[in-house]
Structure formats: C-alpha cells, structure tokens
Amino acid sequence: MTTACEIPTITADRLLSSQLLRVLVMVFGSGLSMYLLTSVVPLYLAANGAGGVGAGLSTAAMMFAAVGVELVVPRMLVRWGYQVVLGVGLVLLGAPSLVLLASASLPVVLGVCIVRGAGLAILVVGAVALVAEITPAARRGEALGVYGVAVGVPAVIGLPLGVYLIDVIGFGALFVLAAVASLAGLVMLIGLPARIAVEEQHVKVLGGVRRSRLLMPTLVFAAVTVAAGISVTFLPLAVAGDRQAIVATALLVQAIAAPAARWLAGRYADRVGPAKLLAPALALAAVGAGSLIFLPSAVAILIGSVCFGAGFGAAQNLTLALMYNRVDRSRFGQVSALWNLAYDGGWGLGALAFGAIVGGTGYPVAFALTAAVVALAVVPAVRASVA
C-alpha cells in the first residue's frame, strides 16, 4: 500500500498514476491563473496610462522575480517537501490578483507581478521535478509531453479568453477568476508526496552547469523564450484596437500548437533522442517570430502563430528531456530550476528589451531582431544533434 509520503514504483505500461493526475490538475489551474492575466495586465496598465514601457515592465517584473526565487526552490523542496512548497506557490500566484481590484497604479501592479512571479517559480520548478520523479525513465519524454499539455491547455484557454473577456466582464472579474483558479489547486495537494524520494545533492543551481553539459540547452531555450515573452506581451499592442479579434485568434492558435507539439516531440524524443529534433524546432520558431515583420497582415499573424507555437512547444520538451538525460536523479531539482530560469529569464528579458527599443525602431524592426535571436540558437542545436 502506498502512503501519501511515498513515491510509488510505476511500471512501464502505466504512465498516468493517481499522483501524476493530481499534479496535472493542479498545474492546469495555476496555469489558467497565469495565462488569463498574461496579456491582460499589460492592457490594464496601458488603459490606465502606463503605455508600452509599463507593459514591458509588468511582464519583466513577474519573470525576473520568478528567476530569483527559482534559485532557491530546490533547497525549499529538500527542507519542506512537495506539499508545503507547492501550497505556498499556489497562494502566492493566486491571492495577489485580488489586489489589482483596488489599484491600477504602476508600483502596485508591479508589486503584484513580483509576488505572483515568486509563486510561479515555486510551482513550475516543483511540479516539473515531481513529474520527473514519479514517472519511469523510459517514458520520461512522453510524461513531460503530457505535463506540457496540462500547462499548455490553460494557455489555449487563458490567453485569448483573457483578452476577449475584458469587454464582457471587465478587468475586476478577471482578477477574481485568476485568483480562484490558482487557489482551487490546494485541494490537489492531498495525496502528493510530502517529501522528495532521493536526497538532492547540495549543489547550487548554477553549479556544475558546464561539466554536466547543461549550459547549451539552457541558453538555447532562453533564446526561444525571449520571443515567447515578446509575442504574448506586445502582439495585442502592435495591432490596432479594432482588430483585437485577430489577436485573440492568433493567441488561441499559438496556444493550441504549443502543447500539441510538446507532446509529439516527447513521444518521438523517447525513440530518437531529443538532440536530433531540437534544431528543426528552433528553426520553425524563428520562422514564426519573423513572420510578425509583416504586421498588420492577418495571414502573417496567423501563420506565424502556428509556426512559433509549434516550434516553441517542441523546444520546451526537447531541451528539458535533454537536460534530464544528462544528469542522475539527485540533480533533477537543479535541472528543473535551470530550465525554468531560462524560461522566465528569457521571457522577462525579451519583454523588457522589446519595450525599450520598439519606440525607436517600430514593430517590424523589433520583431525582426526577435527572430534573429531565435535563429542564432539553431547553430549550437545543430552541433548537439551530430555530437
């Protein structure tokens, strides 16, 4: 009999254990909380006079806060275990959304974004490490793909729905909905492992990165997340207000393509190895990012969203699987933290840099520079595929 504090042995033919299902439900709710407000908060600030700089700062504040907290999450897991740490993450991600009901001032909104970023960091690092622990190594890529669907479906729902609902229920109701979506996940903590199964090595998150061959996939993934942060933050601002239906559709298409590609990449990576698929995924993402040069063309926006969503989703799975394959189980927490550092750091840096330069260059040039960053990451990915 398996207790709540034990991690069961899962046979190769059983991927979806009860514990994995609980994790998937929890990350679905927290992901919905995040994505409902990802494009809404920049619009909320813009509607209250903060402009493009404020929009970029809001995304950057959340992601840079996540980066800082992600450095300590592995140690938190060792000390307090999954249930406590993930519970704290759910509260920090959800509850601060209610503060936005009281004020739209830039300092208050940035403070909310910082606290929510801390909660996001705890959840993404803890959940990914837990998924890797409770699934068999032979099916880890597929398990990470299923996890990717669970965190991707909220993007399918939340990104376009958040933008659409602004005119239907208003900002205030959206903030309440985001809070409830995260806090409801507390129920799913019952039955999850209270402690980690294998004692983590006492290494710093950034320690031994080069020796473990984790540097390349970390930097490559950071390059593509730069473009991801830019697209969800600035696409609604780059398109005229009377064409927001196109933006909502593009965000929906991108959000559907990402988890589908993430799951497919996981299935095939278990067979041929993630390194062989990484370069094509990055090339597809670069094409998608580059298509936004042709704004305000609706065709360019939609095609670009499909290409970028698919490339980004596949790159998520492939880089993470590659990193897990290069370390033993005792360093899973480090891998999860590094990968999420690349995710959130790239997302925040992209939004901040884009917001700073777009006023002087215009959107077409700024989107071209974004595509160039992703394209450069193809080179080390090609080298890894033939190594």
Automatic annotation (TrEMBL):
Domain Major facilitator superfamily (MFS) profile: 19-387
Pfam family, any one: MFS_1
Keywords noted in UniProt: Membrane, Transmembrane, Transmembrane helix
GO cellular component: plasma membrane
Keyword Transmembrane part of the UniProt annotation: yes
Topology with respect to the bilayer: Multi-pass membrane protein
PANTHER family in the record: QUINOLENE RESISTANCE PROTEIN NORA
Recorded GO MF terms: transmembrane transporter activity
Name of the protein in question: MFS transporter
InterPro entries membership: MFS, MFS_dom, MFS_Exporter, MFS_trans_sf
Organism: Kribbella sindirgiensis
